[in-house]
Amino acid sequence: MSAPEKTVPFKISVLVFVYDARGRHLLIKRTKAPNKDCWSPPGGKLEMALGESPFECARRELLEETGFAVEMADLHLFATISEKNFEGSGHWLMFLFNCQKPIAALPASIDEGRFEFFTREEINNLAIPPTDHTLVWPYFDKYKNGFVALRADCDPAKELRVFVDQAMD
After folding, report:
1. 52-76 confidence digits (pLDDT tens)
2. Based on the structure, what is the number of domains in the chain?
3. CATH number of the domain to which 85 belongs
């Protein structure tokens, strides 16, 4: 009989890819875990006790973090990513949205971090979460107007393994 697997928390979150009128990406340099001191698209955790949907969460997080109000029709769900063993401490189910409406101005800093705009090329040279180099941005580049469902084993003791469960360009 094998030993039971250690159970760790499972969290559900969203990331929203937002641009200005020039096509630059809005990123936040996070002051809190996860991904402290890294640049990331705005987002956050679903309020599961309230039955919040990923779309509702994306709208709420954008409004709370940036003051930017969007409609459901402004959001295109382009990816789901199931991350097992993220940083060896938990599992995440992430919903990634491409916002079709440009943001007019740089938002003010918040307690979670400060915002800046970056071109897609500049993002490759920023301090971003290590897994984002292989798990987030390449799939954004390919599927931002389509859809992809991914799962990944992010166990820090192993090499990152990514599986594409479904993809539509």
Report:
1. 999 999 999 999 999 999 999 999 9
2. 1
3. 3.90.79.10
Residue 34 lies in a domain: yes
- Dist CA 24 CA 102 (whole Å): 10
What secondary structure, in 3-state letters, does the chain show?
Answer: CCCCCCCCCEEEEEEEECECCCCCEEEEEECCCCCCCCEECCEEECCHHHCCCHHHHHHHHHHHHHCCCCCHHHEEEEEEEEEEEECCCEEEEEEEEEECCCCCCCCCCECCEEEEEECHHHHCCCCCCCCHHHHCHHHHHHHCCCEEEEEEECCCCCCCEEEEEEEEC
Position 3 in a domain: no
Query: Residue 155: inside a domain, yes or no?
Result: yes
CA pseudo-torsion sign 130, 16, 115, 84: negative
Q: Is residue 103 part of a domain?
A: yes
Residue 156 pLDDT grade (very low, low, confident, very high; cuts 50, 70, 90)? confident
Token code pair at residue 16: 């929203």
Q: What's the distance, CA 87 to chain centroid?
A: 15
Instruction: Look up the domain containing 129 and give its range.
Output: 11-168
Residue type at position 160: L
